[in-house]
Design goal:
Layout (H helix, E strand, L loop, with lengths): L2 H12 L1 H32 L5 H18 L18 H37 L5 H21 L10 H27 L2 H7 L2 H14 L5 H20 L5 H30 L8 H22 L2 H7 L6 H28 L1 H10 L1 H11 L6 H22 L1
Helix pairs in contact: 1-2, 1-4, 1-6, 1-13, 1-14, 2-3, 2-10, 4-6, 4-13, 5-11, 5-13, 6-10, 6-11, 7-15, 7-16, 8-10, 9-16, 13-14, 14-16
Length: 398
């Protein structure tokens, strides 16, 4: 969920697999809440007959919303957002409902922009040439944070078992490859071009869905994907900082990201059958992916002799490097939670459109902060690619 976390920005909605997993989880939580809510209302009526029914319903509703937060439904944060309006619970609840989409959207955009910029700083500005080691450190941070939140019962984490791990291994192998290839592509290519080239993932995913799941796309979607191809090719030709190694890594990243989405969709139902609850929520997937990636990362760190580079490179003696690397790990985890929260507050349509629009400030910030050499044709290629991404999101909605 680090540079691959940028891929994750496209995964939750653009790929039906994750939508299905998240929807089934939310449906189960909402169903349980309704039963608990009815029980609380009847119990309170019996014990406190003098109180008005409307007052009892208001209290039961707030207690249920608070429970949702501490049971691990991070997406419900906006629903349970309360302010002390002199005891007026209804006004606070309405404010939370109205401010939830705005707050979650801002949090989602900030975390997604910060992630790509922080990784670029670590890999390029500090010239750190150990992408696998960086991935290991970031994923370790994610595991520790999720484990602590789970122990404190802030989030609900599914208990892992060997059956689930065996089912998930193919997904995790692709996940690790996706993160590593994303790390190295970002090191060699400017952020704007990475953003444009990642549009190719949508094309590969659509082709894979057609052949694997027989899912057909409408004419607008294919038109948008054709525009993406044009922008990617023209952007590569006019890129003044073109790097063949970086483009190779990015093409590999697009293939692996599409493969991750398709594989996840194939194994999701089977994975749910191996859990105790019969479901697998987003938080559990975050822990599962990051935890299983650690042994693979350690293996490649030793096989590729990255450990020798890490212990000898001077940059690890710089305190600010560790601050930025740690921040990138925390922000990578934040993307998972803010994506889940924003999706719950708004829905797939708004999420996908905001995700496409969010590429614009990321690209602009990348060009300005890292002083990317830019020609007029390359600038138009980037703008055309951003427009193609927005058009693709709107086409998927139709």
């Amino acid at each position: 969920m680090q540079v691959g976390d940028m891929s994750k920005l496209d995964q939750i909605v653009f790929h039906d697999s994750e939508e299905s997993g998240l929807s089934s989880w939310n449906a189960k939580v909402i169903s349980d809440e309704k039963v608990n809510r009815e029980y609380e209302i009847l119990s309170n009526i019996r014990k406190q007959g003098q109180r008005s029914i409307s007052s009892i319903m208001t209290n039961a509703e707030h207690e249920t919303l608070t429970d949702r937060l501490f049971k691990g439904n991070g997406a419900a944060i906006g629903d349970s957002f309360n302010l002390p309006f002199h005891g007026n619970g209804k006004l606070a609840h309405v404010f939370g409902r109205r401010s939830g989409p705005l707050l979650s959207g801002i949090a989602y955009c900030i975390s997604s922009c910060s992630m790509i910029l922080l990784n670029k700083v670590v890999l390029s500005s500090y010239n750190f040439n150990a992408g696998i080691s960086l991935m290991f450190y970031q994923n370790l941070i994610s595991c520790l944070v999720v484990a602590i939140l789970g122990l404190c019962r802030v989030v609900l984490v599914e208990k892992l078992n060997w059956k689930l791990i065996r089912v998930w291994i193919p997904v995790n192998i692709i996940f690790v490859g996706m993160l590593v290839s994303g790390m190295y592509s970002l090191k060699y290519i400017n952020i704007a071009m990475v953003t444009i080239l990642k549009n190719m993932t949508n094309i590969l995913t659509a082709i894979g869905e057609y052949y694997v799941f027989r899912k057909r796309q409408n004419q607008k979607v294919w038109t948008a994907m054709f525009m993406m191809i044009i922008s990617a090719v023209s952007g590569g030709i006019t890129d003044l900082s073109f790097d063949a190694t970086g483009y190779t890594w990015q093409i590999l990243n697009c293939i692996l990201t599409a493969g991750y989405s398709l594989t996840l969709r194939c194994v999701m139902d089977k994975a749910k059958q191996t859990t105790n609850s019969g479901s697998l929520n987003e938080v559990s997937m975050v822990l599962l992916n990051n935890l299983l990636s650690l042994p693979f990362a350690i293996f490649f760190i030793f096989v590729l002799n990255e450990w020798e580079y890490v212990i000898n490179v001077d940059v690890i003696k710089v305190p600010m490097f560790w601050v930025v690397a740690t921040a990138s790990g925390l922000v990578g985890l934040a993307i998972s939670f803010t994506s889940m929260w924003f999706l719950h507050q708004t829905g797939p349509t708004t999420y996908s459109l905001v995700g496409s629009l969010n590429k614009i400030p990321i690209s602009i910030a990348g060009i300005m902060l890292f002083k990317v050499p830019l020609s007029v044709p390359n600038m138009f290629s980037i703008l055309f690619g951003l427009f193609a991404g927005i058009f693709f999101a709107r086409a998927k909605m139709s």
